[in-house]
Structure formats: C-alpha cells, structure tokens
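FAQ: What does the model actually see?

It sees only this:
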Amino acid sequence: MRAIFFRFLSGLLTIAIILGAIGAFYFTSSYGEGHYIAVFPFLLLFFVFFTLLSHTFLVRTHQKNPKLFTNMFLTLMGLKLLLFLVFVGVYLYLSPRETYFPFVISFMIMYIVFTIYEIRGLIYIIQKAKKNQH
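And it is asked to produce this:
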C-alpha cells in the first residue's frame, strides 16, 4: 500500500509541476501579461495539500471499513467544496477586481484537474482491493 501512496504522491507533484509550468508560461506570455496573480503558487500548494489530505483519509477509511467509504467520500467532497467556495469568496472579497477573472479560471482548472486525479486514484485502490478479495 505504501508503494501506491508514493505513486499517487509522485503523480500529484507531477501534476502540480505541470500546472505551475503552464501557469508560468501563460502569465509571462503576451496573452497573460498583466493577469498574473501573486497567489498562484500558493493556490497550487493549497490544492496539493487538500488533495493529499483527503485522499489519505479516504484510503484509510476504505481500508478500515469499506462500507463506510461511500458516505465518507460524499461527505468529504461536500465539505471540501464548501471550504473551497469560502476560500474563493474570501479571496474575491479581499483582492482587487482585476484579479478576479484570472483567479477564478486558475482555481476552476486546478479544482477539476486535482479532483479528477484524486478520484482516479481512489478508483484504482478500490479495484485493487476488490481483486485481492476474489
């Protein structure tokens, strides 16, 4: 199971590096000129941290009590979504107006990419556990 965790972590960090490189390229290009948001690197760290935290929690839940996994998954995803909405709301309240659009677009892209990666990782673990049962 440790190998699966490190594989997930390395994939997560790879995604963060790729998104960081894409963001750096965009914000330094003529298209993104003037749209740079100083919070962009911290946004990547925010998503890596919460994705790793929720993935670890859900994997442990599945190992201890697979019947409880679905309820915990839905609860955690709902709480995560609410937390992220609060984060976006606070940022939009405190930041200058010209950063709204780049922030929201960056946030949405990261949310979608990291959520898809997390769910794919969970599906892999669940399928592997089912194969080991049979």
